[in-house]
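S1.2 Input.
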Amino acid sequence: MQILGLDISKASVSCCLLTERPTEPRQFYYGCDFHKFQANVFGIRGLLTLIGGDLANTIAVMEPTGVNYQLLWGTHLARVGVEVRLVGHKELRSFREHHLGLPDKDDDADALALAIYGWDYLEAPRRFVQARTQPIVEIRRLVLRLSHLNRVQSPIINRARQDLAWQFPEAALVRSVRSGEKVPLFWGWLCGQRPSAKYDLMLEQSIGLGIDEGVRFHAARICDIQREEMVVEFQLSLLVSEPQFLPYRKVFARFGFGRRVEALLLSQIYPFENYLAADGKPDVKIRNGRLSHKPTKRYLSQRRFCKALGCAPSQESSGDINRSRVSGGSDLCRKALWLWVFTRIEPQRTRLNNEIGSRLGEIMDAEKLSGRPVQLVRSRVAAKAVKLLFKELVHELVYPQISNLESKV
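S1.3 Output.
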């Protein structure tokens, strides 16, 4: 067995190959023969030469540096049969500083820390970021791409509206959305890609100073981004329609999640078995409560699930001070769930017409009547919804013979 620690940069990777666990990491650091390879054909060949012929007994350990850098090296290693494991950034930093006592952070120190981390937790899979199947990797890549496109077009739309405020003020605040496979009518008309007698007449009667080429270029960019979004959404619809995701989507349908939210949640929680105990059931421990001193159940699987979706508070207590704050998990999931509460639970006219909507709606209304800040109320309802989602998935995937909604949040 050999462990390969990889610290990945934009166009290179620093490597540390260990065939055994060093007893003195700090001294080993100064005498270790580290390797650095560039992101090109020679770098890949050099990395595979370093590993040698024993690919099946090699484990590569790296940080999950998004889908841009880690994906390249991880894919090439996986193709030749090397097992790839990922370590969270926070876990590695704590391990390097407090457990190993390595010098100030640099690429070589990180590569050594990753390799030693792989040795120390070789038989503890929960110490690593959960492995994702190829469909989930692709879904996650497309979800992140949609998020990027959304961020890119927002400032373009804002700039175009500011210019339209003096060029065509009657249409500066028009809300135009896609219809089927067509780009939004207003932006398409503005750049000459869609005809519209309505906007032609409005422009003739406008008090504006006239539309210049800059706004039309902005409109064309918006249409291009919208077309790219349509392509990505079509690819996502094909991926999430695969048979292994149908039980998950059956549960998502009860919550009224849209296609984008479905894909985002799948990319974070699939497979659901990662959150369960070794026997395939929810992990529940019993220990005495800190204040009551009575046996209290700790729902560890549920907490791991909530943590992954960014809706579990971390406790920070010391002596008489007892504080908690939400940290870690997926920021995208946290924001998506907050917006789902804002659009599908809070408004009476769009509230889900089922038991889930009624239960969460009652919590929402009671919290708002109590005078709590509405931002806090939405976050609390989102956390309740995630707990309910976990229980629904347990009923669907672990105990399908038990009727849903049997237990309360």
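S1.4 Remarks. The beta strands are 2-8, 12-18, 35-38, 58-62, 83-86, 284-288, 295-299, 313-318, 321-326.
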